[in-house]
Amino acid sequence: MEYKETMGKRISDLRKSKGMTQEQLAQQVGVTAQAVSKWENDLSCPDISILPQLAEALGVTTDELLGRAPIQPYEAEAKAGGKHHVSVRLKLNKAEKVIFALLLMAIGVVFLLNALHVIQLGEGITFWSVLWPFLVACMGILACRSELNPVSIGLFLFGAYMLLFNLHIIPAQYRLTWAMAWPVALILIGITILLHFLLPKRDKKDSGLFEVEKGDPVFDCTDEGGFIHIDSAFSSQTKRVQPGNPFTGAKVDSSFGSLVLDLTEAEIQNGAQIDADISFGSLTVRLPAAVGAKAMCKAAFGGCECPPGNPAAEIQIRITGDVSFGKIEVEYV
User: Fold this and answer.
1) Does 2 reside within a domain?
2) Of 66, 77, 118, 269, which is least surrounded by CB within 10 A?
């Protein structure tokens, strides 16, 4: 039995349900965004050779894509207390992946032949002295593909220079110095300004070097006799300890979101400790004005704002943990 909906409509609905743009779908199957637009408007049909890849990208079977079977609803299983993650990957098309793989293989072959004494590389040429500038140059090329700016162009030029220098192609007397670097930086800035005027503007919908795939919102909270465990991701939540309930401490893991721990009406035990691990998000701890607080947190590209409150207070609370690209702050109410 075939289902009456057109293939173009199915492709459009499936793409939108997965939150993809036409450009992103086109990149996954190795065609142009214009081709995807024609499919969705029923002006043309996908080539039969790419149907399996297209079906996989859209999360359906080939039969479902062709309308020969009903499309099954996508179901995601959420496990309480499960670990969440963020998948970050380079956005490469097929040709770029092939070229990158071949270049890595070429480097490996050259150093294998050198190790077997089939060829002899120059003195000081090591695997890492070649690999790291090669990777930096590749990153620069990919960054230029997304957006031309002094950083992306400079990244490519620096990687290419160090690769040629480490291979002794550039003579030692041309070693990069600060006196050479700042004029090059000025030239790159000037070139970038000109390119922004001369080149057509790029579509920003799919710009960027990296593609970030995040999980569903997670908020898991348990209270074990006044000790609270909170696991939060991709959500904004407030955990309020009910009036009169004891609070002996907390272990908080929060990423990609904001979390408020409201202790203003809780029975806080003296010496209670909050251990927090915050990444790309924020934790706000609300305390009654009569409570004192002290924070000892490690911060990387983040901060911890903890006014001491009442230093003579009988009840003192301690906040420890790690902050990466986020912040922990204490509010007194």
Assistant:
1) no
2) 77
